[in-house]
Amino acid sequence: MKFSRFAGPTALLSTAALIAIFMALPQTSAVESAAGTIESAPALTIQDLETVPHDHVAPTDDAAHDHTLVATSSSSESGHQHSNGSTGTSEVTGSDPHAHQPSDPSVLPTGPIVSVNDPRLSPAQQNAASTLLVAARSTIASFPNAAALAAGGYVSAGDNSSGLQHWVNDAFTHDGLEVDPNRIESFVVNITSGRTEGAMFILEPGKTMASVPDIAGELTTWHTHPTICFSITQIWHFVSFASNNNCPSGAAPRTVPPMIHVWSYDPPCGPFVGTEGHGSTNCSAHAH
C-alpha cells in the first residue's frame, strides 16, 4: 500500500495538535482531588464520633488506649475527691479521707452514767434529760432560799441528810401531776447557807418503782426509802424511820412514793443523784 508523501507530515502535525490541546487543559493532582473530596464532605461532630463504631478491646501496649476517668487520680493530688464509680463500704471507710466512720465502741466511757452528754444514752434520752434539767433548774432559781419556799407554800421536813433539808408542798403531792417543773413536790435546801440547791419530784401516793417513768435510763435514777414516821401534828415533818412499821408516839408511818432529784449544779455522780449519794464519788452505790 502506498502512502502519499504528505501522509507522514500530516500525522505528525495531528499528534502535535492533540498534545498541545491536552497541555492546555488544567492539571489536577491526585492529592488535590482527594483534598477536594474531604472538603466537600460534612464535618464530623462529637455526636457523630460517638456513633462511629470503634473497638474497646484492650491493646497489648499499656499506653495505647486508656479509658480510665480523670477523676480516678490519686487523692494526694486533689486532697478531696469523690469517686465516680460505686465503692463498697469497706473501701470508703478504709481509704476515703472524707468518710464518716461509725464510733468505735472501744472508746465509749465505762462505769455509771452521770452526764446528759454520755454517748451511751440515745438522742431521745439525752433530749428528755436535758429538757427536764433545764426546766427544773429554772424553777429552782425562782425559789432561791428557805424564805421564798415558805412563801410559796412549802414546809420544812425537819430532816438533816448530810447538811441538806427537804421542803414539801403537800398540795402538789396528790394533784395528779407528776414530773411537772411548774408543780415540784419538794425542794432541797442547804442548811448552812439557806440556799435552795435542788428539787425532788415525787410520784402520786400508791405508786411503786414498777411504775416510774423512764426518762433517760440509768442517768435518771428513781429511788424510795423505808417507811418513814411523820409527825401527826406537822404535815410532812420527819420524825424517824419506822421500825417494823412502828413509829414513836406522836408520829404515824407513811410510805413515800418513788422520787427523783434534780440539782442546780452537777455533783460528781450526776445531776439526778439522790441525797445519800450527793457528795459521794462512788456513783454505783446509788444506781437503781
Provide a concise account of the structure shown.
This protein has 7 helices and 8 strands, in the order H-H-H-H-H-H-H-E-E-E-E-E-E-E-E. With 288 residues, the chain is an alpha+beta fold. 21% of the residues are buried.
Description:
The chain has a domain at 145-279. It is built from seven helices and eight strands; from the N terminus they run αααααααββββββββ. The chain has helices at 7-24, 30-40, 46-51, 75-78, 89-95, 123-142, 146-151; strands at 155-156, 164-168, 186-190, 196-202, 228-231, 238-241, 251-254, 259-263. The strands form two sheets. A five-stranded antiparallel sheet has the order 1-2-3-4-8. Strands 6-5-7 form a three-stranded antiparallel sheet, with no helix packed on it. The termini are far apart. Residues 28-102 have low confidence and may be disordered.
Descriptors:
288 residues; alpha+beta; 8 strands; 12% strand
Largest sheet: number of strands, sense, barrel closure: 5 strands, antiparallel
Quaternary structure type: single chain
**Portion in helices:** 25-40%
Total helical elements? 7
Low-confidence regions: 28-102
N-to-C terminal Cα separation, in Å? 144 Å
Strand/helix succession? HHHHHHHEEEEEEEE
Strand order of the largest sheet: 1-2-3-4-8
Note the overall shape: elongated
